Structures
1.
Amino acid sequence: MSMNETTYIGPYLACRHGNPSGKKSLNSCPNSSCSNHGRSVYENFCPQCGSKITDVEVAANMEMSLRNEMLDGDRLTDLIMEGDKVDGMHFFGANISFAPPQYKYDEDRHTEFEICPIAIEELMERFSSVFAAEIEKAKRVYGEGNVQVRFGVVRGLS
Ligand SMILES: [Zn+2]
């Protein structure tokens, strides 16, 4: 896998992951050899292996699981793959086009794009509405108070 340094500018989701060494329980697949083990499953039976979903205690040191769960569906991208090195935070940006037409620009061309206060507000609103389901999911995964929509620059590896 090759890593590219990237600079993301725009709205993104900042998620604080708690208690990296403790235990936590969640509705998950009890089958320890299943890829869903340790991930939240919102169905009665595991879609991978068919086990009945129960309360499973797992190590809370699950940065990768949390991250993978958020990346399900490919609509978000991990802005800093070593996210937990940044103060216990994960950062997710848009992996699909979400901006209103006036803010679209061609990434393949050299171009100028002004970021004015109105643009920041509109882009944040659009991000929050396009990714409403992901934001709700993040609140379930990380906890309500640990999820923020921010606007800024994130420099990382992807
Ligand atoms: Zn399973």
Note: The longest helix spans residues 117-130.
2.
Amino acid sequence: MANPAQDLGGKLLAQIEPRDGGTWVALAGTVTEIADFTPLTKLRSPLRLDLIGIERINSLGVRSWIHFVRDCELAGLELSFERCSPVMIQQLSMISNFMGTRSRVKSLFVPYLCPMCNAEQLSLLEVAPNGPLMVPPTIPCPKCRATMHLDELEEMYTGLLDGQGPRQRAYSTGSR
Ligand SMILES: [Zn+2]
């Protein structure tokens, strides 16, 4: 059935499938400096990267990741990121080119915590192609129906994807 996952090294696995004329890649595990992304840069564009499986990324892994995204963009690969895990969004909030300069974030998981029953919930948020990212500050708890709160600083999401895509990017150069 599904292809066996490819080991990229350092506890990072890639599930690779041809889909819709391009390639779908689900990454899972930890991104470290040992991860070798080279096999992914040779896949057929457009590349859809599913990132919910990425649980950790260390500081040298951040550098490898940024080089990978840059190499893909330089090679003319069209990249999009789907179902981004909270750790990847945290990096994106700190490093503006973490998801490249031409690539798009299509959807991300937002973490919520219930103060009543301590339930944790990841809620999938689809990103509209235009307009600001709208992250609900609260959602109802699926377990006890109390109000769950965002388990990140709300400011982290402010302006997070404002510069994404080739058109808006031209306006954001030079500003902080
Ligand atoms: Zn609850």
Note: The two ends are 47 Å apart (CA to CA).
3.
Amino acid sequence: MIELQGLTKRYGEKLAVDGLTCTVRPGIVTGFLGPNGAGKSTTMRMMLDLDRPTHGTVLIDGQHYRQLRDPLRTVGALLDAKAMHGGRSAHNHLLCLAQSNGIPRARVREVLDTVGLASVAGKRSKGFSLGMGQRLGIAGALLGDPQILMFDEPVNGLDPEGIHWIRNLMKNLAAQGRTVFVSSHLMSEMALTADHLIVIGQGRLLADTSMADFIKQNSRSYVRLRSPEVERLLDVLAGAGVTAVTTEDGHLEVDGTEAAELGELAARHRLVLHELSPQQASLEEAFMQLTAESVEYHAHSAPPGADAPPDAAGPPGVAAAPPGGGWGADWQKKKGS
Ligand SMILES: Nc1ncnc2c1ncn2[C@@H]1O[C@H](COP(=O)(O)OP(=O)(O)OP(=O)(O)O)[C@@H](O)[C@H]1O
Ligand SMILES: [Mg+2]
């Protein structure tokens, strides 16, 4: 279990983490979400005593990290996959970690097998691809067979098979009763992996709740209906005091009434329905809704050059910019000049 109490980190003017109080529990996967710069990595660094809190505390199974007798056997973490000596082979990198933490040599081979790097164990890690580096970082986290595991964006760079593998790995680790804390920006992946969510924005706690409640509380759920007798359906709904909104494509959307109730109402009036489907927003929609105000780094929705005159022609040999400039129009002009 990891307990944060009023955890705060200030870098000069910047309040990176602002009074976080929450608990990461064993037996489940807890997802850690927040927009870029929200303070996730800083929080994780403070959990591992890599950064000193300005205020507040982190307790790992009731102790400060520096009080742990065998840190790597208590907490395994992947924070930055590149944080290793590139000149060392994967095997030697793990062996160094094992020997300095009283972990038997045989465990190195085991974790290399687990992460699928046994065939490149003798290769220097500086030649590794992004995904191979992530796998080696994950091997390091697993090395001490710890009860608490922490991963900062572990699926970054992994191929589909690797993503599937780490999803199952995290679920299995949690099912064994371990504490698994993982950050990711891949919402669809998080929705499949995490049971509980801690969401922060600009360093502050925005939500600490189960995945199901998070989606329910931060998004709209409604029922979608389609019928060849849409006018009569609207009358029947209105007669029952149900408000429906007609969409551009001719569907009806109803808030606040269960699909079963709507189906029975339609049946009582012998109305044909071609669709009656409860719609639940995705984790991504719920996340965007909750964090909209705390996003610090916005991309421009219009591509650069979008305000260029519609007749802006590119240089010879370069396709004319589409109306409104188009992506790369400025760059193409420079390239052609
Ligand atoms: N060593 C540092 N010195 C100064 N400012 C820092 C330092 N580390 C982090 N920050 C600042 O603290 C804030 C939180 O950064 P952090 O890396 O924790 O965010 P994050 O949630 O992990 O973001 P991302 O999703 O982009 O990884 C940012 O504004 C960042 O610039
Ligand atoms: Mg980060």
Note: The chain has twelve helices and 13 strands.
4.
Amino acid sequence: MDAGKPNFTEICAILCIDTSSLFYRACSICERTFPENPPAPRCHHCAARNAAASTGAKRLFRVLMSVATDEKVFTAVCFDRTARVIFGCSADEFFEFAKLHPFAPAAASRVLEGELFRMTLSTPKTGNAQHLRIASVVPLRSEYQPVFKCLRERYGTRSHS
Ligand SMILES: [Zn+2]
């Protein structure tokens, strides 16, 4: 990648997403990342500022995906704000949905396979981040349906009577 050009826009096709880890847990107030092990009961940062604050946890998207341009294939990471455009729901909503439908993450990857987006990509600012970051996405197809809508329609047609 051209290191002198931190932001660039490309037409990219999503090849697949890493379904093993789509979310991370964060403070519901300040959105600082919570450690997974051991699970943090509350946010120390917010508790230090306001002892009365009820600091719950929420999930945010962090999705690794393999994307292709006409020239190359690479791995990029997509954070919550951008992933919401692709998924059409919050990370908590998708997590709850995936509890009922365990194959939802795999189905999401299949739904996205080959889908074209105009992506703005930025090179990581911190030294330990290794993947390009997807700063924004715009679906190319005008009739693009967010993943969550597709999956709800797919699973919603089955009756559990
Ligand atoms: Zn916090």
Note: The radius of gyration is 17 Å.
